[in-house]
């Protein structure tokens, strides 16, 4: 603010403020910091672009494009205003805007819009929890926006793969919040492993009954079982094995390629040494 004031004092306002006329006065749309500096400097006039009075929808859209990213609003603030944009757009156009339309209107990425929609879909009591947290300094926030976003993404995956949990989803949220507060769930990113437990039903052919048994341990408030422990016991090996398989396939493709191109002599000595050690290790595993 101080540097802007010094610049305006020396060079004047280089970028006009934007206003619209409302009765016998003007309403500021963009340029609040420039206007405040001009007032403190007692400038008699400022350059301004005068626009037609916007509709509420136009005003919100303009506010998004000017302020949302520049001022780094939190996702809940963005989401609450996004809800109003959706309502106004639907009133004016007869249908709700899709992600592409919302992205074009607001300048937000489709990923950001999806995260906002996850927050908007929370039951009111969880929104109230989040509002209480957002009033605290960032360093003291425990139940952050990221927590609720990651939790909701994971629960959507769980319900999609195992619809049996749909009717219990609200009590499941309560349990997950409590376990996070009590450090049984230790990190926000643990929810990605919750998704993996559910997707293992299709990815590895894990029986729904087996996956549900693992999830029930996490969703049971009486059991002190976190996501990490349940994931590790149930499906972690399968995911690590699949990752290793990709490495094996890539190595196999590479070796076939250099063999067919007769480029074996170009291999580094260290690589050959590692390959020999791997060969011996594989031999032991296969009992050869």
Let me know the largest β-sheet.
3 strands, mixed
> What's the end-to-end separation, in Å?
74 Å
Task: Tell me, rounded to a whole number, the average pLDDT.
Answer: 89
- CATH fold field value of the largest domain: Conserved hypothetical protein from pyrococcus furiosus pfu- 392566-001, ParB domain
Radius of gyration, CA atoms, in whole angstroms? 28 Å
Q: Give me the secondary-structure category.
A: mainly alpha
Task: Tell the overall outline.
Answer: extended
β-strand number: 3
Helix content: 55-70%
Low-confidence stretches: none
Q: Order of strands across the biggest sheet?
A: 2-1-3
Count the domains. 3
InterPro entries: Chromosome_partition/occlusion, ParB/Sulfiredoxin_sf, ParB_N
Organism: Rhizobium leguminosarum
Pfam families: ParB_N
Protein name: ParB-like N-terminal domain-containing protein
């Amino acid at each position: 603010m101080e540097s802007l004031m010094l610049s305006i004092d020396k060079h004047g306002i280089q970028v006009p403020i934007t206003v619209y006329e409302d009765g016998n006065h003007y309403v500021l749309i963009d340029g609040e910091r420039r206007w405040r500096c001009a007032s403190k400097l007692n400038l008699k006039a400022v350059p301004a672009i005068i626009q037609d009075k916007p509709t509420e929808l136009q005003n919100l859209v303009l506010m998004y494009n000017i302020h949302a990213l520049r001022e780094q609003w939190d996702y809940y603030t963005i989401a609450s205003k996004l809800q109003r944009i959706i309502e106004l757009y639907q009133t004016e156009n007869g249908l709700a805007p899709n992600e592409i339309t919302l992205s074009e209107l607001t300048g937000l990425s489709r990923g950001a819009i999806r995260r906002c929609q996850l927050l908007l879909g929370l039951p009111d009591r969880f929104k109230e929890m989040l509002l209480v947290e957002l009033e605290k300094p960032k360093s003291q926030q425990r139940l952050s926006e990221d927590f609720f976003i990651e939790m909701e993404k994971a629960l959507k995956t769980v319900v999609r793969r195992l619809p049996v949990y749909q009717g219990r989803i609200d009590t499941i949220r309560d349990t997950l919040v409590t376990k996070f507060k009590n450090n049984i769930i230790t990190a926000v990113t643990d929810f990605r492993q919750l998704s993996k437990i559910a997707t293992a039903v299709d990815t590895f052919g894990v029986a729904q009954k087996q996956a549900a048994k693992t999830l029930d341990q996490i969703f049971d408030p009486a059991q002190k079982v976190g996501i990490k422990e349940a994931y590790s016991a149930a499906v972690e090996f399968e995911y690590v094995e699949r990752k290793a398989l990709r490495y094996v396939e890539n190595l196999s493709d590479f070796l076939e390629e250099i063999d067919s191109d007769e480029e074996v002599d170009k291999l580094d000595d260290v690589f050959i040494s590692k390959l020999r050690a791997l060969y011996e290790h594989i031999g032991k595993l296969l009992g050869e």
